[in-house]
Amino acid sequence: MKLKHQKSLNIKLKIPGSKSYFQRVVLLIYLLKQNKIVLQNVGLSNDDKTVIKFLINNSFNVDYESNTLIMNRVGEAQSFKNDVGESGFLTRSLLGILSLENNKYQIVGKGSLLKRSFNHELSFLRKNGVEVSEDSYLPISIKGPLKKKNINYDSSNSSQFLSGLLLGLSIQLYKDTIAVSNLSSKKYIDLTIEVAKKFGYIISHSNYTEFSFSTSNIKTPQQLFIESDWSSAAFWIVAGVISAEELILKGLNPNSSQADKKILDVLDTINISYNLDAESLIIKKQKLIGFQFDATDCPDLIPILCLLAVNCEGETRISGISRLINKESNRKSVLIKEFQNLGVLITEKDNTFIIANQKLNSGKVSSYNDHRIAMTFTIATITNRVEIEIDDLKCISKSYPDFLNHYIESGGEIN
Q1: How many CB atoms lie within 10 A of CB 406?
Q2: Do residue 337 and residue 392 come from a single domain?
Q3: Does any domain span residue 222?
Q4: Claim to verify: residue 163 and residue 184 sit in the same structural domain
Q5: Angle 160-171/88-98 helices, nearest 10 degrees?
Q6: What CATH number does residue 364 fall under?
Q7: DSSP 272-315
Q8: CA-CA distance, 43 to 229, in Å (whole number)?
Q9: Are 250 and 280 in contact, with CB atoms under 8 Å apart?
């Protein structure tokens, strides 16, 4: 599909609910077998739908109306075959949660997820008494329970498995501590801790290396608001600082624990002014200079930060790019290749992208069925007034189903 955007960006947008927040809430509902809860501001991305389907398959009834979900537990039956769709988070977190059970489960998926290796998590489980498949790819069979004595987990590969393990252990009121080394994406663990606290389960840590569990007024909230998604907002924030007369984003939590709220750290680094309160984030076009940013704890920001860097005067260095390899695509190689197709050179050195201010041309790119790649090059038509042909836009529904509607509302054209 060919996209172009020739109008000045001047729009107000409501950012959808965070799938990272929502998925953690649903996993807690599953673990607690909660009878009824109302969730507001649910985004209904493909990953959201996948975790809802998981809940339905585990004896919950789900009604949806106007971004609100009403969930009721209607039985005790538990599914021993769990479909995770294309959700890497649900896969890894379920490996952590189901490893604590004394039952045999199977995890199945589809699409690009079938090409992603889970060897790091499965190796840990084997070493700790869990029976798992020999192959490191889906489908995966798993039978616990995990040996809980002296748990020591190397979290250098991803924090998602650890999130599931922490949620499972907290609900089991685990009395010991677990040791964690090389933790990446610390903010995602902060989000897990925050969501658990909403239900009265306290996960404490000592500099993210030792985790312990307690409770405080265990409760089953009857209603929760799913805060809006900073990951989705980041694309529009970059569009705004490059090319907006005025861009207003609604629904973002200024005090959020979401990792991708760090997009504001980038703006602060290059002295970009913005107005943020409980109601809205307001951004306008400003002069941009090159920056240095460590994206180790927020790798999902890297694609759109590359586009920002292309439009900044001087040189930009974005480190932490090794985290890009095992995503929906190998984002490290994809970003280098597809930006080059549009005339932009990205060089790689010592786990860092180096990007200079360059002219971005019209042309064709592939999304590799990766939602963040597709959204990045869609935003490029706004920021650089170019026409870009993208082979697949359907993948965007994985995280932000309203994105293309918002793009058209802002003045974009899709042929």
Answers
A1: 18
A2: yes
A3: no
A4: yes
A5: 40
A6: 3.65.10.10
A7: ---EE-SSEEEE-----B--EEE-TT-GGGHHHHHHHHHTSBSE
A8: 9
A9: yes
Closest CA to 396 of 258, 232, 192: 232
Shared domain for 313 and 387, answered yes or no, is: yes
Q: Is 357 helix (H, G, I), strand (E, B) or coil?
A: coil
Tell me the pLDDT tens digit for each residue of 111-141: 989 999 999 999 999 999 999 999 999 999 9
Query: Among all chains, which residue has been given the structure tokens 């685990």?
Result: 174
Mean pLDDT, consecutive 10-residue stretches, the chain (415 aa), reads 93 96 96 92 94 95 92 90 96 98 96 93 97 95 94 93 98 95 92 96 97 88 94 98 97 95 96 94 96 95 98 97 87 97 97 97 97 98 97 96 97 96
336, 196: one domain: no
- Could you tell me if residue 56 is left (phi over 0), alpha (psi between -120 and 50 degrees) or otherwise beta? alpha
- Examine residue 221 and state whether it is found in any structural domain, yes or no: no
Q: Residue 216's pLDDT is what?
A: 85
Position 242 in a domain: yes
220-256: per-residue pLDDT in tens? 789 999 999 999 999 999 999 999 999 999 999 999 9
Q: Are residues 11 and 49 in the same domain?
A: no
Non-local (6+) Cβ contacts of 195 within 8 A are 21, 24, 25, 28
Give residue 110's pLDDT: 94
Count of domains for the chain: 2
Distance CA 354, CA 340 (A): 13
Structure tokens at 332: 């490290």
- What pLDDT, on the 0 to 100 scale, is given for residue 77? 83
Distance of alpha carbon 344 from alpha carbon 354, whole angstroms: 11
Which of 214, 237, 253 is the last residue before a domain boundary? Answer: 214
Q: Are residue 191 and residue 58 in the same domain, yes or no?
A: yes
Question: What is the extent of the structural domain holding 41?
Answer: 19-214
* pTM value > 0.90: yes
* CB environment 157-179: b (16+ within 10 A), e (fewer): bbbbbbbbbbbbbbbeebeebbe
Which of 183, 214, 245 is at the close of a domain?
A: 214
Q: Give kind and range of the element (H or E) at residue 103.
A: none
| One domain, residues 35 and 168 | yes
Place of tokens 């939602």: 371
Are 227 and 17 a contacting pair, CB within 8 Å? yes
pLDDT for 219: 78
H helices of 119-159, in order, are: 119-127
How much is the pLDDT for 8?
87
The strand pairing partners of 142, in sequence order, are 105, 132
